[in-house]
């Protein structure tokens, strides 16, 4: 296998886009592991630009920290996901779970002039501690300075302006502004990751400077935009969109409950905008192919893309591991209609237990291996 030196010196600027999805993001690790299996041990990351949203932002940042040695970065990422427990992401004991809910209820009776902590279903302070312990963010700047990486972008949603904001760290790129979306050059820190992964209503919003931000998948009408603004010529996307399960189509004997509707909302937030943006990209590419080179506008360019999504349904898999969830979390979810065999997809987002995440990693690994030839060709690695 050919191996280039530093990734950013690769002849084509290839971006990696990791989407959101809570615990489902374990799948991304499996795909990344399949790619690593086919590269030399000391190979730098095969992506010059890394973009992440929600849980994908955490995976993206971990990779950026180890851009100089892709296999090492994937191994460290896999170790965390393979040993996950819910308590590492959000408080899950009885006292903390129901005390948090009670505190939210009591604060609702206080004056609006009070500076209340953000309301949420769960308290995800443990995640902040986990990120601080496993991520050495100083390495990102070193990797950019040494040309192992061109840019890292983390998308969050501004609750103040309603904009989709791509916070990015780069040597050369400059900030940009478009309708309802913008890019802000900065130094990525833990607060950007906490904001980007704050699933609406599930986890609390995060304050960055003078504004409050939440999950980057909200308001994200153009998920491919940050990668393209940062100079990508190709975009490799690892999504978490589910294969269609036909049993949910047709006659339904009852109204969908709160839990089912909440699951549908999360599915929409994490999947639908990406699909629409890819369709728009394909349409632009087709249009450009019909325009003579001399007439093409300098701001328009063809962007190649490769998308890999799960081959199996995570909702069904989450049902298999429902019983390993902490009892307090099962009781809380049951109160809003989420049971073991519910149609809701909420459990598949919140099940941060190693039995489940290991299963998703293995699915991602097998999906990656099944398309490895096409993936390596897209990444411009060829057999020697």
TrEMBL record:
By its UniProt entry, which CDD domains does this protein fall under? Pat_hypo_Ecoli_Z1214_like
Which is one Pfam family of this protein?
Patatin
Q: Where is the active site?
A: 54, 215
What are its GO biological-process terms?
Answer: lipid catabolic process
- Domain PNPLA per the UniProt entry, residue ranges: 16-228
The name of this protein is Patatin
Molecular function terms, GO-annotated: hydrolase activity
User: Where, by residue number, is the motif GXSXG?
Assistant: 52-56
Q: Which UniProt keywords apply?
A: Hydrolase, Lipid degradation, Lipid metabolism
Q: Does the keyword Disulfide bond apply?
A: no
Give the matching InterPro entries.
Acyl_Trfase/lysoPLipase, NTE, PNPLA_dom
């Amino acid at each position: 296998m050919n191996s280039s030196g530093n990734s950013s010196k690769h002849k084509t600027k290839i971006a990696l886009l990791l989407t959101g999805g809570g615990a489902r993001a374990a799948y991304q690790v499996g795909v990344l592991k399949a790619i690593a299996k086919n590269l030399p041990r000391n190979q730098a990351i095969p992506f010059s630009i890394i973009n992440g949203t929600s849980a994908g932002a955490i995976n993206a940042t971990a990779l950026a920290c180890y851009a100089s040695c892709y296999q090492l970065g994937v191994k460290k990422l896999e170790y965390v996901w393979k040993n996950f427990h819910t308590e590492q992401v959000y408080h899950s004991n009885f006292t903390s779970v129901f005390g948090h809910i009670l505190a939210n209820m009591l604060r609702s009776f206080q004056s609006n002039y009070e500076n209340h902590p953000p309301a949420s279903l769960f308290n995800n302070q443990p995640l902040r501690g986990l990120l601080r312990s496993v991520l050495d963010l100083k390495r990102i700047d070193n990797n950019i300075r040494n040309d192992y990486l061109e840019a890292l972008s983390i998308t969050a949603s501004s609750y103040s302006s309603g904009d989709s904001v791509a916070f990015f760290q780069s040597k050369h790129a400059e900030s940009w502004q478009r309708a309802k979306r913008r890019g802000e050059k900065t130094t990525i820190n833990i607060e950007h990751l906490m904001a980007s992964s704050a699933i609406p209503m599930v986890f609390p919003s995060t304050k960055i400077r003078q504004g409050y931000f939440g999950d980057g998948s909200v308001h994200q009408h153009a998920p491919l935009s940050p990668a393209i603004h940062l100079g990508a010529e190709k975009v490799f996307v690892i999504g978490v969109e589910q294969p269609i399960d036909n049993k949910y189509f047709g006659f339904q004997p009852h109204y969908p409950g709160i839990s089912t509707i909440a699951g549908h909302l999360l599915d929409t937030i994490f999947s639908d905008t990406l699909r629409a943006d890819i369709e728009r990209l394909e349409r632009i590419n087709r249009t450009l192919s019909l325009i003579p080179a001399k007439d093409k506008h300098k701001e328009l360019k063809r962007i190649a893309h490769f998308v890999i999504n799960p081959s199996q349904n995570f909702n069904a898999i989450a049902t298999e591991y429902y019983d390993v969830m902490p009892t307090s979390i099962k009781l809380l979810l049951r109160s809003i209609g989420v049971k073991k065999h519910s149609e809701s997809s909420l459990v598949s987002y919140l099940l941060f237990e190693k039995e489940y995440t290991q299963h998703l990693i293995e699915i991602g690994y097998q999906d990656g291996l099944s398309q490895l030839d096409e993936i390596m060709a897209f990444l411009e690695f060829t057999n020697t």
